[in-house]
Amino acid sequence: MLLADALDAESGVVCVVGAGGKKTTLYTLANALDRTAVTATVRIPIFDEAVTAVHATESPAAALAGTTTWPVGVVAERERQDRYAGYDPAVVDRLAGRIRPHASPDEALADVLLVKADGARTRWLKAPDDREPQLPREADVVIPIASARVVGEPLSDERVHRPERVAALTGLSPGDRISATDVATVLASRDGGLKDVPPDAAVVPLVNMVDDDDLERTGRAVAEAVLDRAGDRIERVVLARMIDPDPLVDVVD
Fold first, then answer.
1. 143-178 tens-digit pLDDT
2. Helical ranges in 85-212 per DSSP H
3. Which pLDDT tens digit goes with each residue over 20-47?
4. Residue 217: partners with Cβ closer than 8 Å, 6 or more residues away
5. Which of 213, 193, 211 is nearest to 202 (CA)?
6. pLDDT at residue 1, rounded to an integer
7. What single-letter DSSP state applies at residue 231?
8. Of 170, 171, 203, which Cα lies nearest the Cα of 185?
9. Is the peptide bond between 71 and the residue preceding it cis, with omega within 30 degrees of 0?
10. Residue (of 252, 177, 178) closest to 216 by Cα position
11. Which domains does the chain have, with CATH numbers?
12. Per-residue pLDDT for 137 more than 90?
């Protein structure tokens, strides 16, 4: 099985949220799949090197219609020298009908639209605030991400984005060591990894940075705890290491 298969990311509107490798996951998928576009509903750092071209435009459909080489990026504008601005989720919703399988292969503008739907400032774990995530209603798949490396770290803003939100979900206090169960609680919570996920969207959590045997054991502990907490909303959890040419480690279901 390939990473895209494990994540249900071979077609449709696929959104990533959380922390610990969102951008790397997007770009890994983009370069593994055919006719793939990368976009965002929030700010996104410059990613020109990860795609063949980036179109900063108010008309993403027109940009995709003229695309002949893949993968490509489509964003609202270049907001600063180091980042692009994303689209309002409603723009992505309008575009969703032109993405396979919602459109026929002959009419589809792309096979996959990959969407960065929140930010985490390069931390390894996060819980969303009141304005996050910015998920389009037409999302087909949502991938909540956390890093296996955050287990054992203290709850602080060095490794955790919005640590006060993580504390509220887990009962941790500042400085407490984060456990695999704590990470799972965040990923499986309706105020965490499941926040604002459309009811018809599949949810496939990803535990990233599973870079050695010890971290694989940690990742499995997180995955099993997620499945214990999520009921039938989550059927499997993917373990991966994006530093590897073959990034899929395993699927826990």
1. 999 999 999 999 999 999 999 999 999 999 999 999
2. 89-96, 163-170, 180-188
3. 999 999 999 999 999 999 999 999 999 9
4. none
5. 193
6. 80
7. G
8. 170
9. yes
10. 252
11. 3-39+113-252 (3.40.50)
12. yes
What's the mean pLDDT when you consider all of the chain?
97
C-alpha–C-alpha distance, residues 228 and 202, integer Å = 17
pLDDT confidence of residue 65: 97
* Chain centre to alpha carbon of residue 118: 8
* Cα–Cα separations (whole angstroms), residue 221 to 65, 128, 163, 205, 208: 44, 23, 21, 13, 13
CB 77 within 8 A of CB 84: yes
- Two tokens at 42? 């929030």
Cα–Cα distances in Å, from 217 out to 3, 211, 253? 19, 11, 15
From the centroid of its chain, how far is CA 193?
10
C-alpha closest to that of 99 among 64, 71, 67, 73 = 64
Q: Which two tokens stand for residue 116?
A: 């960065």
Question: Cα–Cα distances in Å, from 194 out to 132, 145, 205, 242?
Answer: 11, 11, 10, 23
